[in-house]
Design brief:
- The chain has two domains: 63 residues; 53 residues, no CATH class.
- 54% of the residues lie in helices and 8% in strands.
- It contains four helices and two strands; from the N terminus they run H-H-H-E-E-H.
- It has a two-stranded antiparallel sheet with strand order 1-2.
Amino acid sequence: MDTRLATSKLRMQQWQAIIQARIESGMTVSSWCDANGINIKSYYYWLHKIKAAMLEEDSVSPVRAFAELPAAQESHVHDNERIFRPELTLSVADITISIDSNTPCDLLSRVLEVIRHA
């Protein structure tokens, strides 16, 4: 393997880990970069490169992605309290998502990330 290509792949992996850490932190990009000594312009540069690489990879070999969703926890409530009333419904192509104020933000974030790459 070419040394430049190997270095580029290594950097890409390092930045993927950095970007994933920022996402999992729940902090804004600006706050997280300040707290971790990361140049915000470098962050966005690598975010753009990673997205472009993922789009290129998807166009070469499209793969369906699956998100692991937590199992619903049983609760002891009356049947009439279990009625789901969506407060927001998102539709993109053939995908529809309905959420309410009880939808966990991390779950919604993971689902939207999968849809974005679908």
